[in-house]
Design goal:
alpha+beta; CBS-domain; 4 domains; five-stranded antiparallel β-sheet; 12 strands
Length: 432
């Protein structure tokens, strides 16, 4: 090597430094590339993405290949620097040359390339994968031998490839991905995706119509009262019971009732027969919305009664209620909102305390706590740990609440006003 002209040695050194930068940058790019985007590109037919995906199936082999090549290049470059230094000034220059080369290698062969690879992984990884695919075939025996030794050392340390964590995303990690994708996903779609991910954490009792609000037909009532109730009903399917909701007869479909009423053939016997043709469908408390959505699909049902551990009916949940948890309100009927919430001047609202907290949050855009009681009344009672008297004021999160009316061991009506959040002072504590 001493006989090689200095310009040639310099040229080879520059080439080796460039190769070192290539191996360093592409190693970082391949290890940091988004695996899900890579899979998408591979399915679109990108040859570079397919090669990268194949290489990353055995990352230990890929890293072994890159390190073998990179170390060979760096060692060759160090040797050439030594030769150049000897040609320029003898042994005294050798240490200086190696020292200068070390700094140059760190900057141009490691730090700068790896930074570039981390910033633009896809731009580097896909074309590099095609090159590494060829190198892997050429250097396969060397790579395998290196990996056998390296994996043996890892096993001695108690580390196994089989025990390595999978790259699949957990639910919380997927929530983070969706939350950070606001630049590419419309806000409404983003909200729907987050709601779908939340279905596993929300249960049927969180969205059900409470027992005392279920609009049903009692077959023991006067016939004229039943007819008036049917004429005034806004629901397509109505529960029919015998004296109590715990004695359900079935579900009455108004389409069939309307035909019989039009022909003046409808009587109490027909009412019971039609209701019994569709038996009530029961689901236990604690059923997640994700499970219930699948159950509705399997059972071909749209209405389910939520029962507790004793079999008593606690409420009613519909397919429409469940879908609204995903897509939000999709009907133009706002009567239920007006029934529970009335706006006042000054930005405050008169609210029915029996209203569901989740419904209020969804319809009003509020952020009342949903991890505890299901109704606003329950939230207030839990906060105060007693049933308050009219005139009691409290603050839950960023909402000022004044109790206006109580009765029957419950809060009936409150005035609620959203207030601007305040910075918590040291030592202060706020519940809710």
């Amino acid at each position: 090597m001493q006989d090689i002209p200095l310009p040639w040695l310099t040229g080879i050194l520059v080439l080796l430094l460039a190769l070192s930068g290539f191996f360093s940058s592409t190693e970082t790019a391949l290890m940091s590339i988004n695996r899900y985007r890579l899979r998408h590109r591979a399915r679109e037919g990108s040859s570079g993405a397919k090669a990268a995906e194949k290489l990353l199936e055995a990352p230990d082999r890929l890293i072994g290949l890159i390190l073998v090549c990179n170390n060979f290049v760096n060692s060759a470059a160090a040797a050439i620097v030594t030769v150049i230094s000897l040609q320029l000034g003898g042994e005294a220059y050798a240490a200086i040359g190696v020292g200068i080369f070390t700094v140059v290698l760190i900057i141009f062969g490691e730090v700068a390339p790896k930074t570039f690879g981390a910033l633009y992984p896809e731009r580097l990884a896909l074309p590099a994968a095609l090159i590494y695919r060829v190198l892997m075939k050429v250097l396969y025996p060397v790579v395998i031998a290196t990996n056998v030794v390296a994996n043996g050392v890892l096993r001695l340390l108690g580390i196994s490839r089989e025990k390595a964590s999978a790259t699949s995303l957990s639910r919380e990690e997927l929530r983070t991905v969706v939350a950070e994708a606001s630049t590419v996903i419309p806000h409404r779609h983003q909200r729907m995706l987050m709601s779908i991910l939340d279905l596993e954490r929300i249960h049927v009792e969180d969205i059900m119509v409470p027992r005392n609000e279920i609009a049903g037909i009692d077959v023991t009532d006067e016939w004229e009262d039943i007819l008036d109730q049917l004429r005034d009903s806004r629901h397509t399917r109505i529960p029919v019971y015998d004296g109590s909701l715990d004695e359900l007869v079935g579900i009455l479909h108004m389409k069939k009732v309307a035909r019989l009423m039009a022909r003046d053939e409808f009587d109490r016997e027909q009412l019971v027969a039609l209701a019994r043709s569709r038996e009530p469908y029961y689901v236990p408390e604690g059923t997640s919305l994700n499970t219930q959505l699948l159950n509705f699909q399997r059972q071909r049902r749209r209405v389910a009664f939520v029962v507790d551990e004793y079999g008593d009916v606690q409420g009613l949940v519909t397919l429409e209620d469940l879908l609204e948890e995903i897509v939000g309100e999709f009907t133009s009927d706002t009567s239920s909102l007006h029934k529970d919430v009335h706006k006042e001047k000054g930005g405050s609202f008169i609210v029915n305390a029996a209203a569901s907290v989740r419904t209020l949050n969804r319809k009003m855009g509020w952020s009342l706590p949903t991890s505890g009681p299901r109704t606003l009344n329950g939230l207030i009672v839990e906060y105060l740990e007693t049933i308050p008297e009219a005139g009691t004021s409290l603050r839950i999160n960023d909402y000022a609440i004044d109790v206006l009316q109580t009765g029957e061991n419950a809060v009936k009506t409150v005035r609620l006003k959203p207030i601007a959040p305040q910075v918590a002072q040291p030592g202060s504590e706020r519940r809710g």
